[in-house]
């Protein structure tokens, strides 16, 4: 089975506030999928719904084809979850804590020791088994949070802001750990740091104000997907802007205004610059310039959330 998680029309309200609306996506085996968005975008809400720690207001989550709402115990068996603030007990030693988590994950008693040893080894915690959690650095606490999530060898690992608050060395180590773990399971992680998702994710979903802005292609924009276009100014454009005219073209997925008569254009999958120039001319627009744009995740991200970026 290649689809580890399937999310269909997922929504969540908190009173009158809509935290998440109409989310649809899939996570496939072997993928690291990033949920990217500014503070309050709905990332944590989405991951809590995926992990079954929060119930949706609408829609469905399936883990390996098991409906999470209908069969939570069976579905959660395949899930490991690192919450935004992992529930660590500072008064416990690392081994004690992991043993406790192994019980919660229903690891068979005879496998406890092996499960704890394996998780420690994967997360670089071998040397600190007897250490009190209160004495661990932030980086080691984060590793411990990840270790508790992989104790039962889940097929899907959910990590909420896994490198938040870490120093650059710790960030690099945790990113390495995530890439390493992705050999065994699919991973979905959240971040508001653009370089973070670029560094570790195969695919990126952008959330803004509870909605998904773009789907899969955002993270894999190829060198031919982004083009810079300059049109000759027209006196007869009426209410319709240049960007709107460009977005009407079949080969254009989105057009962003860069300046007067200058646009950044994202092509639909499979479309080429030849299609773009042909369709621009066919629509009666006057094409002055057409050139490739570097697929810069940060710039596209700010364009999409409308926060303004550098052109
Ligand atoms: N328990 C709650 N009760 C009321 N509102 C909530 C609750 N949890 C989240 N929200 C609201 O839902 C929206 C999305 O919050 P969420 O924590 O999912 O965003 P986020 O993208 O994870 O943000 P951050 O990066 O700051 O953690 C926000 O407006 C938040 O205030």
Quick structural gist:
It is built from 10 helices and 14 strands. The protein is α/β, with parallel strands linked by helices.
What does this structure look like?
The chain has 311 residues and is α/β, with parallel strands linked by helices. It folds into three domains: 1-78 and 154-221, 3-Layer(aba) Sandwich (Rossmann fold), CATH 3.40.50.300; 88-153, no CATH class; 226-293, Alpha-Beta Plaits (2-Layer Sandwich). Helices cover 31% and strands 28% of the residues. The protein has ten helices and 14 strands. A six-stranded mixed sheet has the order 6-7-8-3-9-10, with helices on both faces. Strands 2-1-4-5 form a four-stranded antiparallel sheet. Strand 7, helix 6 and strand 8 (186-191) form a beta-alpha-beta unit. Helix 3 crosses helix 4 and helix 4 (112-122) packs across helix 5 (138-150). The chain starts with a strand and ends in a 6-residue tail after the last helix. Residues 215-221 have low confidence and may be disordered. It binds adenosine-5'-triphosphate. Adenosine-5'-triphosphate (ATP) binds next to strand 2 and helix 1.
